[in-house]
UniProtKB/TrEMBL annotation, chains A, B:
<dbReference type="InterPro" id="IPR055170">
    <property type="entry name" value="GFO_IDH_MocA-like_dom"/>
</dbReference>
<dbReference type="GO" id="GO:0000166">
    <property type="term" value="F:nucleotide binding"/>
</dbReference>
<dbReference type="InterPro" id="IPR000683">
    <property type="entry name" value="Gfo/Idh/MocA-like_OxRdtase_N"/>
</dbReference>
<dbReference type="Pfam" id="PF01408">
    <property type="entry name" value="GFO_IDH_MocA"/>
</dbReference>
<comment type="similarity">
    <text>Belongs to the Gfo/Idh/MocA family.</text>
</comment>
<feature type="domain" description="GFO/IDH/MocA-like oxidoreductase">
    <location>
        <begin position="145"/>
        <end position="259"/>
    </location>
</feature>
<protein>
    <submittedName>
        <fullName>Oxidoreductase</fullName>
    </submittedName>
</protein>
<dbReference type="Pfam" id="PF22725">
    <property type="entry name" value="GFO_IDH_MocA_C3"/>
</dbReference>
<feature type="domain" description="Gfo/Idh/MocA-like oxidoreductase N-terminal">
    <location>
        <begin position="6"/>
        <end position="125"/>
    </location>
</feature>
Length: 360, 360
C-alpha cells in the first residue's frame, strides 16, 4: 500500500493543467487518473494534445471526476468564481484538494472551502508552486538569521506581465463573472504571498491600496499597487499588472541584510534557481564602492517546483490515507492569510484608497 | 588659457568633501585651490588628513573662500539649512556652484539659489554623482527604446542604509535645524531622481506619501515611502530609510522591457558598473522557465563618477569663462524637479498621507 501513488483527477482543461499534468507524472507518489472538462471533446483534445496515457479516464463533466471512487485527489484550475462550488463538492466526496490560486473570491468563500475540507478530513493545498522549490527554505534560512538578516523592515514585490490584446479582450482573468479579482488575484496573489513569506506569515495590521488602479470597462483590475503596514513598523509595497513586461522582483530588507529575487514565482531556469543576499553592507572608506557586495546563491533542483508541490501534497494525502494522520493545517492557514490581504487591498481600492484593517 | 583648470574652493570639511577632493584631483580640468571650514584648525586637519598639497589655501571661514578672487567655483557640502545662505553669497561673488543634495529645504529656497546663479551668470549643478557615470546614458538609451523597452509603466526605487547609533543620535542629517528633510532629503533624493530619470524628467502630477513614516523625537524622517502618479497612468513608488541594511534598487518596467539596478547611486565597483535588462520576456511553452532571461550589461569607466561630475561641471565653467557661453540650464532644471517632488512628498507626510499635487 505504501507504494500506491495518489490518484489525481483534474477539473478543467485550463492551460495551467498541462503543466500540472507533467508535474503529476514527474512526482514519484502521484499518478493522473482522470481529466474532466465541460465536454468529452474538450477533455479528449486536452488528453491528446498533452500525450496523456490511454489509461487516463476522460470525463465530459466535473461531476464525473469527483464521483469517481478510484480518484483520491483533485486538482482544480477552474476560474475563481467556480472554486467555492467545486471545491466543496470535491471535499464532500472525500477528495483531497489541490486548488489553484486565488483560492476564492473572498475569505468568506475560502472559509466554506476550508470548513468542507476539515469536516471531511481531506488535505487542502493551494497551487502556489514556488513555495515548494528548494530555493524557498534556503531563503527562509537567510531571512530568519538574526545576525545576517536581522529584523525585517521592508519588502517590495512586483509581478507584472504584458498580456496580449486577445487576453485583454477575452481571458477569463479579466471577466468579472469568472475572475473578479483580475490582476490582484492572478499575480498580486504571488506578491502578497512573498511578502507574507518574508514576514514569517505575520499578517499586516492595515493596508492602503495605491490610488489610480487601471480597471477595464467591467471594473476588473488590470494593474494596481498597495502598501501594507505592521504594528512593529515593518512596511511592504507591491505592484501587479497585466500591462507591463514580465517582471518578478522581490526585495526584502532587514536591519542587517538584503534579499533580492528576480524570478520569485517561476525561476528563469527550471533546473537551478538563484537568489542574492547581502549582509552588513557598507561603503568602503571613501564611499566609492561597496564591501561586501551581494552574493549569488544557486539552488539546483532535480524535480520542478510543481512536481515537488504535487509530491508534498501527495505525501500528506498518503499520510492521511495510510496512517490515519490529520491533514496538515499549515497550507490552508497560509492560503487564508493571503486571501485576507487580497480582501483588504480590494476593499481599500473599492473605498478609493482608504486605509483598511486586515481581517482576522 | 584653454588648459587652465577650474580652481575650486570647498566650503566645509564634511566627510563627502574627501571624496570630492579626490575627484577634483582626478578630473583633468579642475584643481583644488582652497578649503574653508569654521576654524583654521578644522580646515588644516582636513588638509593633512587628506594629504592635500601645500598649495591648497587653508581658510578659517566660508567667507574667505568665496572672497578669494583666485577661485572660480565652489563645492558646497554644508548642511542643507545653510545652502540658501552660502549658495547665494557664492553666486553673488561670481563663483560657479557645485551644491550637495538635497539642494535646499524646499523649492522656494532653491529658486532663490537658482535666481542668484542665473543673475550672476554662474553654472549651477547638484552633487548627484551617478548622473555622470557612463552607465547612465547607456540606461537612458535602453529606456528610450520604443521597441525594447516601450512605454514606461512603473518604477520602484529603494535606498536604505543602516545608520549606527552615533549617527542616529548626532548626525547632522537627523537634526531638524540642519537637515530637516532627514532620510527623505539624504537618500529619498536619489530615489526621486532615479524615478524622474526613468520618466525622462516628466514630473508626476500627484504624490501620496505612505502612512506610518518613522520619525525621530524631533520629527525628522528616519524612514518613509511614497507613491507617485502621472496623468498617463505611470506610477512609481520609493522607500528611503536610515534603519535598514544598505540597499539601492531601482526597477523600471515598460510595456516591452524591464531595467534592474542594484547599486544605482554608488556602483559596487568603482571601475565597472553593470545593469540588467530584459525585453519581451515570456515564459516557455509550459511556463516552466523564461525566454529570454535578463541580460547583464557591463560599463567600465576610467574615471570615477564623481571625477566625471567635476569634469563636466568644469567643462561648462570653462565654456562660460573662456567662450562667453551661457550656463547650461539642464542641471538646475533637474535639481528643481527633484526638489519639487521632495516638497510634495513632505507635504503629503505632513498632512497625514493625503494626495498632494506636485508644484510647477
Amino acid at each position: 500500500m505504501a507504494n500506491k501513488p495518489v490518484r489525481f483527477g483534474i477539473l478543467g482543461a485550463a492551460k495551467i493543467a498541462r503543466k500540472v499534468c507533467r508535474a503529476i507524472a514527474d512526482a514519484p507518489n502521484a499518478t493522473l487518473s482522470a481529466i474532466g472538462s465541460r465536454s468529452v471533446e474538450k477533455a479528449s483534445k486536452f488528453a491528446s494534445d498533452n500525450g496523456l496515457s490511454a489509461e487516463v479516464k476522460i470525463y465530459g463533466s466535473y461531476e464525473a471526476v469527483v464521483d469517481d471512487p478510484e480518484i483520491d485527489a483533485v486538482y482544480v484550475p477552474l476560474p475563481t468564481s467556480l472554486h467555492l462550488r467545486w471545491a466543496v463538492v470535491a471535499a464532500k466526496k472525500k477528495k483531497h484538494l489541490l486548488l489553484e490560486k486565488p483560492v476564492a473570491l473572498n475569505v468568506a468563500e475560502f472559509d466554506e472551502i476550508a470548513a468542507a475540507c476539515e469536516g471531511n478530513g481531506v488535505q487542502f493545498m493551494d497551487g502556489t508552486m514556488w513555495m515548494h522549490h528548494p530555493r524557498t527554505p534556503k531563503i527562509s534560512q537567510f531571512l530568519s538569521d538574526a545576525d545576517q538578516f536581522g529584523q525585517l523592515k521592508m519588502v517590495n514585490s512586483i509581478y507584472t506581465y504584458a498580456a496580449d490584446s486577445e487576453f485583454i479582450a477575452n481571458d477569463i482573468r479579466i471577466k468579472p463573472d469568472l475572475d473578479g479579482l483580475g490582476a490582484l488575484g492572478d499575480v498580486g496573489w504571488y506578491c502578497i504571498r512573498s511578502i507574507l513569506f518574508a514576514a514569517d506569515f505575520q499578517l499586516p495590521t492595515t493596508v492602503l491600496a495605491l490610488p489610480n488602479p487601471v480597471l477595464n470597462e467591467s471594473d476588473v483590475i488590470l494593474s494596481c499597487g498597495s502598501s501594507l503596514f505592521w504594528d512593529d513598523g515593518k512596511v511592504a509595497t507591491f505592484h501587479c499588472s497585466f500591462l507591463s513586461n514580465l517582471t518578478m522582483d522581490t526585495t526584502a530588507i532587514g536591519t542587517n541584510g538584503t534579499l533580492n529575487l528576480n524570478d520569485f514565482v517561476i525561476p528563469y531556469d527550471e533546473k537551478e534557481a538563484y537568489f542574492f543576499t547581502s549582509s552588513k553592507s557598507r561603503f568602503n572608506e571613501l564611499a566609492t564602492g561597496w564591501k561586501p557586495v551581494s552574493s549569488k546563491h544557486v539552488v539546483p533542483t532535480e524535480l520542478s517546483q510543481e512536481a515537488r508541490m504535487v509530491g508534498e501534497f501527495s505525501r500528506l494525502v498518503k499520510e492521511i490515507k495510510e496512517k490515519g494522520s490529520k491533514p496538515e493545517k499549515k497550507w490552508p492557514s497560509i492560503s487564508r492569510k493571503t486571501q485576507l490581504v487580497i480582501d483588504a487591498v480590494k476593499a481599500s481600492l473599492d473605498r478609493g484608497s482608504k486605509v483598511v484593517e486586515v481581517g482576522q
